[in-house]
Structures are given as structure tokens and as C-alpha cells.
Amino acid sequence: MSDWKNSMYAQIAYMAGMGLAFLFAPNILLPLLGLEPTSEIWIRILGMLVLALTFYYWTALNQNQLSFARVSVWGRFAFCAGLAILGVMFGQYIFIGFAVLEAGLALWTYRTLPKEG
Predict the structure, then answer these.
(1) Do 86 and 39 meet the contact criterion of CB atoms below 8 Å apart?
(2) Are 62 and 74 in contact (CB under 8 A)?
(3) Measured CA distances, 53 to 38, 49, 75 (Å)
(4) What is the distance between the alpha carbons of residues 89 and 63, in angstroms, rounded to a whole number?
(5) Which of 85, 75, 82 is nearest to 105 (CA)?
(6) Taking Cα atoms as reference points, which of 27, 61, 68 lies closest to residue 44?
(7) Most buried residue among 14, 28, 82, 88 by CB atoms closer than 10 A?
(8) 8 Å CB contact between 47 and 21
(9) φ, ψ for residue 115 (rounded to 5)?
(10) How far apart are CA 77 and CA 103, in angstroms?
(11) Does the structure show a pLDDT above 70 at 106?
(12) What's the CA gap between 46 and 20, in Å, rounded?
């Protein structure tokens, strides 16, 4: 298996874990992130969205969709920038750590993708 696929499997595992936690155990995860527990529906909807995105990643990976992997890198880098900015703006610095983790996964994918052409 190629390294780009391993990087995408790592991304899928990360996303699935976060999605499942937000969907089924948000009030265990939220305090670990420095956020207040909630009984509102938004966090579970976020979990479902992350799990849905995980299926897109899984399908693209299993169909060897290099174009999806390439575009996912840039989307993930944009997400990292936004996450870091929001972490600083709201004083929730743990999110900068998540931005670094996500950037590392995106960089791994970028560096291991076959060159175009």
C-alpha cells in the first residue's frame, strides 16, 4: 500500500474518532477541549457531518481517487488555518494543537502523493 493511502487512512481514523465522540459522547469530549458540556443538538449534528465526510474519504480512497486526495490536502490546510485563528481569537489554544495535528496529516498526504503528469 502506498504512503498516501496510509496518510488517508490515518485521516479517516482521526475523523471517525472525532465524529463518533461528538455524536455519542460529546460531554466527555467537550470538557477535554476546554468547552462546556451541552445538551444542545448542534454537537451531535457536527458528529454526523464529520462521519458523513469520513465516508467520502473512505470511498475516494478505495477508488484510488488521487484527485480527491489532492484537493483534500488544500481543504485540510484551509481548515487548519481557520481552526488556529479561531483558537487564538477565543483563547481556546488546544485547538491550535488540533490544527497542527491536522496540518501534519495533510502534509503527510501532500508529500506522498504521486506527482501529476
Answers:
(1) no
(2) no
(3) 23, 6, 12
(4) 39
(5) 75
(6) 27
(7) 14
(8) yes
(9) -70, 145
(10) 6
(11) yes
(12) 10
> Is the pLDDT score of 9 beyond 70?
yes
Query: Taking Cα atoms as reference points, which of 21, 17, 23 lies closest to residue 45?
Result: 23
Task: List b or e across 37-65, with b for residues whose CB sees 16 or more CB atoms inside 10 angstroms.
Answer: eeeeeebeeebeebbebbeebeebbeeeb
SS3 of the chain: the string is CCHHHHHHHHHHHHHHHHHHHHHHCHHHHHHHCCCCCCCCCHHHHHHHHHHHHHHHHHHHHHCCCHHHHHHHHHHHHHHHHHHHHHHHHCCCCHHHHHHHHHHHHHHHHHHHCCCCC
Looking at the predicted structure, is the pLDDT value of residue 7 above 80? yes
**pTM of full prediction above 0.85:** yes
Q: Per residue in 63-98, pLDDT tens?
A: 999 999 999 999 999 999 999 999 999 999 999 999
